[in-house]
Amino acid sequence: MPVRILAIESSCDETSAAICEDGKITSNIIASQKIHEQYGGVVPELASRAHMQNIVPVVDAALKKASLTLDKIDAVGYTQSPGLIGSLLVGGQFAKSLSFSKNIPLIAVHHMQAHVLANLIADPAPNFPFLCMTVSGGHTQIVVCESPYSMKIIGETIDDAAGEAFDKSAKLLGLPYPGGPLIDHYAASGNPTRFNFPKPQIEGLNFSFSGLKTSILYFLEHAGKTFSYKPELKVSQIEKEHFIQTNLNDLCASIQHRIITILLEKLKRAADETGIKSICLAGGVSANKGLRQSFNELALVEGWQPYIPSFEYCTDNAAMIAITAYHKFLAKDLTPLSQTSSARANW
Ligand code: KG4
Ligand code: ZN
User: Fold this and answer.
1) Which superfamily is assigned to 4-115+313-330 in CATH?
2) Where exactly are the structural domains of the chain?
3) pLDDT tens for each residue of 170-219
4) How crowded is residue 75: how many other Cβ atoms within 10 Å of its Cβ?
5) Which residue among 315, 316, 320, 347 has the greatest number of ligand 1 atoms within 8 angstroms of its CB, and so is best to mutate?
6) Of 76, 107, 152, 292, which one's alpha carbon is 20 to 30 angstroms from that of 303?
7) CB of 13 shorter than 6 A to ligand 1
8) Cα–Cα distance between 53 and 127 in angstroms, integer?
9) What is the pLDDT of residues 264-307, one digit of tens each?
10) 177 lines ligand 1 (CB under 6 A)
Protein backbone atom coordinates (compact mmCIF):
# COMPACT_ATOMS: atom_id res chain seq x y z
CA MET A 1 0.00 0.00 0.00
CA PRO A 2 1.35 3.47 -0.84
CA VAL A 3 2.06 5.90 2.01
CA ARG A 4 0.09 9.11 1.54
CA ILE A 5 0.84 12.20 3.60
CA LEU A 6 -1.19 15.40 3.73
CA ALA A 7 0.92 18.35 4.91
CA ILE A 8 0.12 21.91 5.93
CA GLU A 9 2.41 24.95 6.01
CA SER A 10 1.25 28.17 7.69
CA SER A 11 4.36 29.61 9.38
CA CYS A 12 4.22 33.07 7.83
CA ASP A 13 2.09 34.58 5.05
CA GLU A 14 1.53 31.59 2.77
CA THR A 15 -1.23 29.04 3.43
CA SER A 16 -0.22 25.84 1.71
CA ALA A 17 -1.27 22.19 1.59
CA ALA A 18 0.41 19.34 -0.28
CA ILE A 19 0.16 15.60 -0.80
CA CYS A 20 3.16 13.28 -0.87
CA GLU A 21 2.64 9.74 -2.09
CA ASP A 22 5.56 7.35 -1.53
CA GLY A 23 8.03 10.26 -1.61
CA LYS A 24 6.53 11.89 -4.74
CA ILE A 25 4.66 15.20 -4.54
CA THR A 26 1.27 14.88 -6.24
CA SER A 27 -0.12 18.30 -5.30
CA ASN A 28 1.13 21.53 -3.78
CA ILE A 29 -1.38 24.36 -3.41
CA ILE A 30 -0.19 27.77 -2.17
CA ALA A 31 -2.42 30.74 -1.29
CA SER A 32 -0.33 33.91 -0.92
CA GLN A 33 -1.60 36.78 1.21
CA LYS A 34 -1.57 40.04 -0.76
CA ILE A 35 -2.96 42.04 2.17
CA HIS A 36 0.52 42.68 3.67
CA GLU A 37 1.85 44.60 0.62
CA GLN A 38 0.23 47.86 1.73
CA TYR A 39 1.93 47.65 5.16
CA GLY A 40 5.50 47.07 3.89
CA GLY A 41 5.83 43.77 5.81
CA VAL A 42 3.83 40.86 7.25
CA VAL A 43 1.25 41.91 9.89
CA PRO A 44 0.99 38.83 12.18
CA GLU A 45 -2.66 39.22 13.18
CA LEU A 46 -3.77 39.72 9.57
CA ALA A 47 -1.71 36.66 8.56
CA SER A 48 -3.46 34.47 11.17
CA ARG A 49 -6.89 35.64 10.01
CA ALA A 50 -6.06 34.99 6.36
CA HIS A 51 -4.83 31.47 7.26
CA MET A 52 -8.20 30.83 8.95
CA GLN A 53 -10.01 31.82 5.75
CA ASN A 54 -7.68 29.93 3.41
CA ILE A 55 -6.98 26.67 5.17
CA VAL A 56 -10.13 24.70 4.34
CA PRO A 57 -10.22 25.58 0.59
CA VAL A 58 -6.46 25.07 0.26
CA VAL A 59 -6.54 21.59 1.86
CA ASP A 60 -9.59 20.74 -0.23
CA ALA A 61 -7.82 21.85 -3.44
CA ALA A 62 -4.69 19.81 -2.55
CA LEU A 63 -6.80 16.65 -2.06
CA LYS A 64 -8.73 17.25 -5.31
CA LYS A 65 -5.56 17.89 -7.35
CA ALA A 66 -4.14 14.56 -6.09
CA SER A 67 -7.52 12.86 -6.76
CA LEU A 68 -7.78 11.77 -3.12
CA THR A 69 -10.24 12.01 -0.26
CA LEU A 70 -9.33 12.33 3.42
CA ASP A 71 -10.04 8.63 3.98
CA LYS A 72 -7.02 7.73 1.82
CA ILE A 73 -4.56 9.77 3.92
CA ASP A 74 -2.15 7.86 6.22
CA ALA A 75 -0.75 10.77 8.25
CA VAL A 76 -0.94 14.53 8.54
CA GLY A 77 2.19 16.69 8.75
CA TYR A 78 2.38 20.36 9.66
CA THR A 79 4.90 23.12 10.38
CA GLN A 80 5.33 23.32 14.13
CA SER A 81 8.14 25.92 14.24
CA PRO A 82 9.74 28.43 13.72
CA GLY A 83 7.35 31.13 12.57
CA LEU A 84 4.63 33.56 13.62
CA ILE A 85 2.88 32.00 16.59
CA GLY A 86 -0.69 32.85 15.52
CA SER A 87 -0.08 31.61 11.98
CA LEU A 88 1.53 28.38 13.22
CA LEU A 89 -1.38 27.77 15.58
CA VAL A 90 -3.93 27.83 12.74
CA GLY A 91 -2.10 25.11 10.78
CA GLY A 92 -1.18 23.19 13.93
CA GLN A 93 -4.69 23.05 15.34
CA PHE A 94 -6.13 22.15 11.95
CA ALA A 95 -3.64 19.29 11.57
CA LYS A 96 -4.27 18.08 15.13
CA SER A 97 -8.04 18.08 14.55
CA LEU A 98 -7.66 16.08 11.33
CA SER A 99 -5.37 13.60 13.06
CA PHE A 100 -7.85 13.18 15.93
CA SER A 101 -11.01 12.95 13.82
CA LYS A 102 -9.53 10.57 11.22
CA ASN A 103 -7.47 8.62 13.75
CA ILE A 104 -4.25 9.00 11.73
CA PRO A 105 -0.77 9.91 12.99
CA LEU A 106 0.30 13.54 13.44
CA ILE A 107 3.81 14.62 12.40
CA ALA A 108 5.26 17.95 13.57
CA VAL A 109 7.88 19.36 11.17
CA HIS A 110 10.65 21.91 11.64
CA HIS A 111 10.33 24.55 8.89
CA MET A 112 14.10 24.93 8.35
CA GLN A 113 14.67 21.17 8.15
CA ALA A 114 11.89 21.11 5.55
CA HIS A 115 13.52 23.87 3.44
CA VAL A 116 16.68 21.72 3.30
CA LEU A 117 14.78 18.50 2.51
CA ALA A 118 12.89 20.25 -0.34
CA ASN A 119 15.96 19.12 -2.27
CA LEU A 120 14.83 15.48 -1.87
CA ILE A 121 11.75 16.17 -4.04
CA ALA A 122 13.95 16.34 -7.15
CA ASP A 123 14.83 13.30 -9.19
CA PRO A 124 17.73 12.62 -9.00
CA ALA A 125 17.99 13.83 -5.39
CA PRO A 126 21.36 14.67 -3.78
CA ASN A 127 23.26 11.86 -2.07
CA PHE A 128 24.09 12.14 1.64
CA PRO A 129 26.04 13.82 3.06
CA PHE A 130 25.31 17.09 1.30
CA LEU A 131 25.83 20.74 2.17
CA CYS A 132 22.84 23.05 2.00
CA MET A 133 22.79 26.82 2.13
CA THR A 134 19.28 27.85 3.20
CA VAL A 135 18.52 31.46 2.35
CA SER A 136 15.08 32.62 3.44
CA GLY A 137 13.32 35.66 4.81
CA GLY A 138 14.07 34.74 8.41
CA HIS A 139 17.21 32.57 8.22
CA THR A 140 20.53 32.17 6.46
CA GLN A 141 22.29 28.93 7.33
CA ILE A 142 24.83 26.50 5.96
CA VAL A 143 24.10 22.97 7.16
CA VAL A 144 25.78 19.61 6.74
CA CYS A 145 22.97 17.17 6.07
CA GLU A 146 23.98 13.58 6.97
CA SER A 147 20.52 12.04 6.51
CA PRO A 148 16.89 13.26 6.51
CA TYR A 149 17.06 13.07 10.31
CA SER A 150 20.47 14.50 11.02
CA MET A 151 21.75 17.95 10.14
CA LYS A 152 24.24 20.31 11.72
CA ILE A 153 24.45 24.11 11.30
CA ILE A 154 28.04 25.13 10.52
CA GLY A 155 27.40 28.78 9.62
CA GLU A 156 24.58 31.30 9.99
CA THR A 157 23.81 34.99 9.93
CA ILE A 158 24.71 37.08 12.94
CA ASP A 159 22.12 39.76 12.06
CA ASP A 160 19.78 40.06 9.03
CA ALA A 161 18.86 37.06 6.89
CA ALA A 162 19.61 37.16 3.14
CA GLY A 163 15.91 37.59 2.33
CA GLU A 164 15.71 40.45 4.82
CA ALA A 165 18.72 42.05 3.13
CA PHE A 166 16.84 41.90 -0.18
CA ASP A 167 13.57 43.17 1.31
CA LYS A 168 15.15 45.98 3.35
CA SER A 169 17.27 47.11 0.38
CA ALA A 170 14.13 47.16 -1.76
CA LYS A 171 12.35 49.24 0.87
CA LEU A 172 15.21 51.78 0.79
CA LEU A 173 14.72 51.94 -2.99
CA GLY A 174 11.00 52.66 -2.45
CA LEU A 175 9.87 49.24 -3.73
CA PRO A 176 6.93 47.40 -2.10
CA TYR A 177 7.15 44.32 0.14
CA PRO A 178 8.39 41.65 -0.51
CA GLY A 179 11.13 43.37 -2.48
CA GLY A 180 13.37 40.36 -3.19
CA PRO A 181 11.60 39.29 -6.39
CA LEU A 182 11.49 42.95 -7.59
CA ILE A 183 15.24 43.42 -7.10
CA ASP A 184 15.69 40.18 -9.05
CA HIS A 185 13.49 41.59 -11.84
CA TYR A 186 15.23 45.00 -12.19
CA ALA A 187 18.69 43.47 -11.71
CA ALA A 188 18.23 41.47 -14.91
CA SER A 189 18.61 44.71 -16.94
CA GLY A 190 21.31 46.32 -14.76
CA ASN A 191 25.11 46.39 -14.44
CA PRO A 192 26.13 44.34 -11.35
CA THR A 193 29.59 45.94 -11.07
CA ARG A 194 28.54 49.60 -11.48
CA PHE A 195 28.31 50.28 -7.70
CA ASN A 196 30.82 48.42 -5.56
CA PHE A 197 28.98 48.09 -2.23
CA PRO A 198 31.34 47.27 0.68
CA LYS A 199 31.75 43.65 1.75
CA PRO A 200 31.47 42.73 5.47
CA GLN A 201 34.60 41.28 7.08
CA ILE A 202 33.22 38.35 9.08
CA GLU A 203 35.45 35.48 10.18
CA GLY A 204 34.58 31.83 9.57
CA LEU A 205 31.34 30.61 8.03
CA ASN A 206 28.94 33.17 9.52
CA PHE A 207 27.22 35.92 7.53
CA SER A 208 26.35 39.55 8.19
CA PHE A 209 24.10 41.78 6.11
CA SER A 210 23.29 44.73 8.36
CA GLY A 211 26.37 46.73 7.23
CA LEU A 212 25.29 46.42 3.60
CA LYS A 213 21.87 47.83 4.47
CA THR A 214 23.50 50.84 6.19
CA SER A 215 25.85 51.50 3.26
CA ILE A 216 22.88 51.42 0.84
CA LEU A 217 21.03 53.90 3.04
CA TYR A 218 23.94 56.37 3.00
CA PHE A 219 24.69 55.77 -0.68
CA LEU A 220 21.13 56.75 -1.62
CA GLU A 221 20.99 59.68 0.81
CA HIS A 222 24.20 61.01 -0.76
CA ALA A 223 23.00 60.31 -4.35
CA GLY A 224 25.82 57.86 -5.01
CA LYS A 225 28.72 59.98 -3.74
CA THR A 226 29.76 57.86 -0.73
CA PHE A 227 28.90 54.65 1.16
CA SER A 228 29.52 56.21 4.57
CA TYR A 229 27.81 58.98 6.50
CA LYS A 230 28.94 62.45 5.35
CA PRO A 231 26.29 65.02 6.44
CA GLU A 232 27.79 67.70 4.22
CA LEU A 233 27.13 65.54 1.12
CA LYS A 234 23.50 64.68 1.93
CA VAL A 235 21.04 65.54 -0.87
CA SER A 236 17.36 66.51 -0.79
CA GLN A 237 14.56 63.91 -0.94
CA ILE A 238 13.78 64.93 -4.54
CA GLU A 239 17.43 64.50 -5.62
CA LYS A 240 17.56 61.12 -3.86
CA GLU A 241 14.42 59.90 -5.62
CA HIS A 242 15.75 61.15 -8.94
CA PHE A 243 19.03 59.27 -8.36
CA ILE A 244 17.12 56.06 -7.59
CA GLN A 245 14.80 56.44 -10.56
CA THR A 246 17.56 57.01 -13.08
CA ASN A 247 19.78 54.20 -11.73
CA LEU A 248 17.26 51.63 -10.51
CA ASN A 249 18.42 48.71 -12.67
CA ASP A 250 22.12 49.22 -11.84
CA LEU A 251 21.36 49.73 -8.14
CA CYS A 252 19.35 46.48 -8.00
CA ALA A 253 21.98 44.57 -9.99
CA SER A 254 24.82 45.86 -7.77
CA ILE A 255 22.98 45.17 -4.49
CA GLN A 256 22.02 41.68 -5.69
CA HIS A 257 25.59 41.06 -6.85
CA ARG A 258 26.96 41.98 -3.40
CA ILE A 259 24.46 39.73 -1.57
CA ILE A 260 25.30 36.85 -3.93
CA THR A 261 29.08 37.28 -3.51
CA ILE A 262 28.70 37.31 0.31
CA LEU A 263 26.64 34.09 0.16
CA LEU A 264 28.75 32.18 -2.35
CA GLU A 265 32.10 33.04 -0.76
CA LYS A 266 30.95 31.42 2.49
CA LEU A 267 29.44 28.46 0.69
CA LYS A 268 32.71 27.82 -1.15
CA ARG A 269 34.58 28.06 2.12
CA ALA A 270 32.19 25.54 3.72
CA ALA A 271 32.65 23.16 0.78
CA ASP A 272 36.46 23.49 1.00
CA GLU A 273 36.47 22.91 4.77
CA THR A 274 34.14 19.89 4.73
CA GLY A 275 35.29 18.38 1.42
CA ILE A 276 31.62 17.78 0.49
CA LYS A 277 30.84 18.10 -3.23
CA SER A 278 27.04 17.63 -3.25
CA ILE A 279 25.85 21.19 -2.66
CA CYS A 280 22.26 22.42 -2.41
CA LEU A 281 20.44 25.72 -2.13
CA ALA A 282 17.10 26.14 -0.37
CA GLY A 283 14.69 28.83 0.86
CA GLY A 284 12.94 31.77 -0.77
CA VAL A 285 16.09 33.57 -1.92
CA SER A 286 17.16 30.49 -3.90
CA ALA A 287 14.40 31.55 -6.33
CA ASN A 288 16.70 34.47 -7.24
CA LYS A 289 17.80 34.11 -10.87
CA GLY A 290 21.17 35.80 -10.31
CA LEU A 291 21.97 33.51 -7.35
CA ARG A 292 20.91 30.39 -9.26
CA GLN A 293 23.11 31.31 -12.21
CA SER A 294 26.18 32.28 -10.14
CA PHE A 295 25.77 29.14 -7.99
CA ASN A 296 25.68 26.89 -11.08
CA GLU A 297 28.72 28.67 -12.57
CA LEU A 298 30.67 28.26 -9.32
CA ALA A 299 29.66 24.58 -9.14
CA LEU A 300 31.12 24.04 -12.61
CA VAL A 301 34.44 25.64 -11.62
CA GLU A 302 34.61 23.77 -8.28
CA GLY A 303 33.44 20.38 -9.59
CA TRP A 304 30.36 20.32 -7.32
CA GLN A 305 27.10 18.48 -8.01
CA PRO A 306 24.69 21.42 -7.62
CA TYR A 307 21.02 21.10 -6.62
CA ILE A 308 18.37 23.82 -6.42
CA PRO A 309 14.70 23.04 -5.76
CA SER A 310 12.33 24.06 -8.56
CA PHE A 311 10.83 27.54 -8.02
CA GLU A 312 7.61 26.40 -6.31
CA TYR A 313 9.62 24.51 -3.66
CA CYS A 314 12.00 27.42 -2.85
CA THR A 315 9.61 29.89 -1.23
CA ASP A 316 7.34 28.65 1.58
CA ASN A 317 5.28 25.63 0.47
CA ALA A 318 3.70 22.53 1.99
CA ALA A 319 5.45 20.12 -0.40
CA MET A 320 8.67 20.50 1.62
CA ILE A 321 6.69 19.81 4.81
CA ALA A 322 5.15 16.75 3.14
CA ILE A 323 8.48 15.23 2.04
CA THR A 324 9.93 15.82 5.54
CA ALA A 325 6.84 14.31 7.20
CA TYR A 326 7.13 11.33 4.82
CA HIS A 327 10.69 10.60 6.04
CA LYS A 328 9.63 11.08 9.66
CA PHE A 329 6.73 8.67 9.06
CA LEU A 330 9.16 6.04 7.70
CA ALA A 331 11.33 6.53 10.80
CA LYS A 332 8.19 6.27 13.03
CA ASP A 333 9.00 9.74 14.36
CA LEU A 334 5.38 10.66 15.12
CA THR A 335 3.99 13.41 17.34
CA PRO A 336 1.67 12.40 20.20
CA LEU A 337 -1.67 14.22 20.19
CA SER A 338 -1.16 14.79 23.88
CA GLN A 339 1.75 17.12 23.12
CA THR A 340 0.49 20.42 24.44
CA SER A 341 2.41 22.88 22.24
CA SER A 342 1.21 22.36 18.69
CA ALA A 343 3.11 25.53 17.71
CA ARG A 344 6.34 27.15 18.83
CA ALA A 345 7.67 30.52 17.62
CA ASN A 346 11.23 29.24 18.09
CA TRP A 347 12.69 25.74 18.18
O1 KG4 B 1 11.61 30.87 2.43
P2 KG4 B 1 10.67 32.02 2.32
O3 KG4 B 1 9.53 31.91 1.35
O4 KG4 B 1 10.05 32.39 3.69
C5 KG4 B 1 10.75 32.29 4.91
O6 KG4 B 1 10.81 31.17 5.46
O7 KG4 B 1 11.27 33.34 5.32
O8 KG4 B 1 11.55 33.29 1.94
C9 KG4 B 1 10.98 34.55 1.72
C10 KG4 B 1 12.10 35.49 1.29
C11 KG4 B 1 11.65 36.94 1.21
O12 KG4 B 1 12.61 37.73 1.88
C13 KG4 B 1 11.65 37.23 -0.29
O14 KG4 B 1 11.93 38.57 -0.63
C15 KG4 B 1 12.76 36.32 -0.76
O16 KG4 B 1 12.58 35.13 -0.01
N17 KG4 B 1 12.67 36.03 -2.19
C18 KG4 B 1 13.56 36.46 -3.09
C19 KG4 B 1 13.10 36.02 -4.36
N20 KG4 B 1 11.94 35.33 -4.18
C21 KG4 B 1 11.69 35.34 -2.83
N22 KG4 B 1 14.69 37.17 -2.94
C23 KG4 B 1 15.39 37.46 -4.05
N24 KG4 B 1 15.02 37.09 -5.29
C25 KG4 B 1 13.89 36.36 -5.49
N26 KG4 B 1 13.53 36.00 -6.72
ZN1 ZN C 1 10.56 29.51 4.81
Assistant:
1) ATPase, nucleotide binding domain (3.30.420.40)
2) 4-115+313-330, 128-308
3) 999 999 989 999 999 999 999 999 999 999 989 999 999 999 999 999 99
4) 25
5) 315
6) 152
7) no
8) 40
9) 999 999 999 999 999 999 999 999 999 999 999 999 999 999 99
10) no
